[in-house]
Amino acid sequence: MTKAVFIDYMGTTVDERSQEMGEIVRRICKNSAVHDPKQVQRFILDNRRRYEADSYLDSYLTEDEIVDRLIIDMEAQLDLADDPAALRELIRRHWVNAPVFPDARAFFERCPVPIYIITNNGLPYMERALAQNGLNAAGVISADTVRAYKPHREIFDEALQCSGCAPDEALHIGDSYDTDVIGARAAGIRPILLLRGRIGHDGVDTANDLLQAMELIFKIN
C-alpha cells in the first residue's frame, strides 16, 4: 500500500522554461560566441549534470557553487562577457519563480497521501518557492541535506526516513530517467516517469501528467 509519494520539483512540479531562464539564455547568446539558444541550453544542462554527478559527500558543491563554476566555464569556453552577479541573481529567481504546472497544483490538492519533494535545489530557495506557490508538502528533502545529488540513493533514503516509509510503501514521480528513475530504483522505490509528451522508456511505468500518475498510483494499490 502506498503511504507516501515522493516527487521531483524542477521539470515535474514546475516548468523549467521560466521567464528568468529565457532571459539567462538570451543574455548568454547576446554576450558570448554562441548564439544558438539550444546550444546554450545544452551547455548549461550537460555541465550542470556533470558537476552534480561529481559532487558527493566530501566533494559536495551546493547549487550556488555549481552556478559559479558554470559561469567561469562559459567565460572560458564560450567567451561569455556578462555581469556574473546579474546572471547569478537571475538563476536564483528562476529557482523560486519557475511556474507551477496546472496539473501539479491539482495533484497537490487531491493526492490522498503525504507528498514529499526530493530536489537538487537548495532548501532556502525551495521554501520560498513553495510558500510563494501555495504548495503544501509534508517535507522537502534537498541534496544539501545529505550532500549528494540524485541519482545517489542517499537523498532517496533520507526521504524514506523522513516519511517513515519502507521502500515498498512509497513511489517516486520524476521527469528524468537518469536521475529520478535510476535513483529511486537504487533505493528500492518504485518509480513513475513523467513524460509530458516525450517518448517513454521500456520497463518503467509512465504517465503523461501528474493526474494520470495519481490514477496509476492508486490503481497499483
Question: Can I get a quick summary?
Answer:
The chain has 221 residues and is an alpha/beta fold. The protein has helices at 19-30, 37-54, 63-77, 84-97, 102-110, 123-133, 143-146, 153-163, 177-186, 210-220, and strands at 4-7, 115-119, 139-142, 170-174, 190-194, 205-207.
Account of the 3D structure:
The protein has 221 residues and is an alpha/beta fold. It contains 10 helices and 6 strands; from the N terminus they run βαααααβαβααβαββα. Strand 2, helix 6 (123-133) and strand 3 (139-142) form a beta-alpha-beta unit.
Q: How far do the termini sit from each other?
A: 5 Å
Q: How many individual β-strands?
A: 6
Largest sheet: 6 strands, parallel
What is the string of SSEs from the N terminus onward?
EHHHHHEHEHHEHEEH
Question: Main traits of this protein?
Answer:
single chain; 221 residues; alpha/beta; six-stranded parallel sheet; 6 strands; 52% helix
How is the secondary structure organized here?
Blueprint: E1 4-7, H1 19-30, H2 37-54, H3 63-77, H4 84-97, H5 102-110, E2 115-119, H6 123-133, E3 139-142, H7 143-146, H8 153-163, E4 170-174, H9 177-186, E5 190-194, E6 205-207, H10 210-220
Parallel strand pairs: 1-2, 1-4, 2-3, 4-5, 5-6
